[in-house]
Amino acid sequence: MKNLQFLTRRRIEAGIFLVVFLGIFGGIGSVMGVPNMMNTLMKTSHDLLINTVFYLMGITVLTGALGKLLIEFGVVRLLEVMLRPLMRPLYNMPGVAALGAVLTFLSDNPAIISLANDKNFSKYFKKYQLISLTNFGTAFGMGLVVIVFMAGRGFAAAALVGLIGSFVGSIVSTRLMQRFILKAHPELDGEVSGGNEQKISFKSEGGVFLRVLNSLLDGGKTGVELGIAIIPGVLIISSFVMMLTFGPGENGYDGSAYQGIALLPMLAGKIDFIFDWLFGFGHPELVAFPITSLGAVGAALSLVPKFQAAGFIDGNAIAVFTAMGMCWSGFLSTHTAMLDTLGFRNLTSKAIIAHTIGGFVAGIVAHWAFVLFSII
After folding, report:
1. What is the DSSP letter of 198?
2. How far apart are CA 31 and CA 253, in angstroms?
3. How much helix, strand and coil, in percent to the nearest 5, is found in the chain?
4. Distance, CA of 237 to CA of 38 (rounded, Å)
5. Does the pLDDT at position 120 exceed 80?
6. Which of 130, 208, 216, 338 has the smallest count of CB within 10 Å of its CB?
7. From CA 299, how far away is CA 233, in angstroms rounded?
């Protein structure tokens, strides 16, 4: 009986999937023509791989090496000590939480998962605080890569303004998540076994030259792995989003890269006054960046060169992109994986809601902070 129910459910899922799949691509193909749609998908993916992914990989290798050097020679530890006084009043977290922020900023969201599972780290947290690391750590994921990328496009100051927005968004997301947790599980407001925060350290061995060399090579290797990890998101998500963002070429649809049906701008254009007031977006196409950031910030970064070439980009857009890209940074997958690891999968929806709100706050703060920055 159970097998029959399972087979029935699977057949229904298959039917629904086919209807949705054929509906989406059938609709796009009816506008562009199926051959043009396929050629555009392939050429867009190829161009993104050659001109965007390898550029991003170069950044991740360099920033990976830099991050490893900062860890090896105690700079991360120093930053943790400097940031520790902010943790309790701003985030309601023990001081060691600053280590999570710094490491995810230098690398990516998964760093917070490994830290949360480290008993020498987690013992300083109450249970609800440890769970809220899901939102706290994600808000800084790939931060260094995002800022370096934006600076490389000529918008260093705007990227730093965006960092402020991401910082505020992380506070909102973390605090909201803590409130949601305590409301659902008040029993988690118990103390976890304490310890001396000063015991957390990074051991180093060998001479200075060997430590530098190993740090550069190990960090660069980590950067290569991160660069490879972003390939699926960039090629799959960005290609599809771009097809929904951009329209036909000057000569109509001919299968060239970066053509599409311009669905997202049309939908955003109907409520563009909201995006204009909240984020200062002068072009509805720009809404594609935060949407893509939900899945992968690396994929979202691949949109920037095309937007810049089209003349859509200004300092304000970069500030908002940086804030929302860092704060969201593909949190949908990270939240699910981390909460599952901690044994609180039932809180996934609450974490997503809190972080979605935090990302919007990050973008709004970045926009108005840039307006203030421009006036000054």
Report:
1. G
2. 9
3. 80, 0, 20
4. 15
5. no
6. 208
7. 5
Q: Spell out the alpha helix ranges (H) of 153-296.
A: 156-184, 208-229, 231-232, 239-245, 263-269, 272-279, 288-293
Distance CA 275, CA 356 (A): 16
pLDDT > 80? residue 133: yes
The DSSP string of 106-132 is HS-THHHHHHHT-HHHHTTS-HHHHHH
Evaluate if pTM is beyond 0.90: no
pLDDT of residue 119: 72
Give the amino acid at 37.
Answer: M
CB 288 within 8 A of CB 245: yes
How many helical (H) and strand (E) elements, i.e. helices and strands, does the chain have?
A: 21, 0
Residues 6+ apart with CB under 8 A from 364: 165, 278, 279
Please give the Cα distance from 218 to 38 (Å, whole number): 40
Q: Which amino acid is at 177?
A: M
- 257 has a pLDDT exceeding 80: yes
Among 263, 251, 260, CA closest to 40:
260
Residue with tokens 């310890």: 195
On whether the CB atoms of residues 366 and 165 are closer than 8 A, the answer is: yes
φ/ψ (deg, to 5) at 252: 85, -160
CA distance 149 to 60: 10
| Structure-token match 């118990």, residue found | 190
Higher pLDDT, 228 or 253: 253
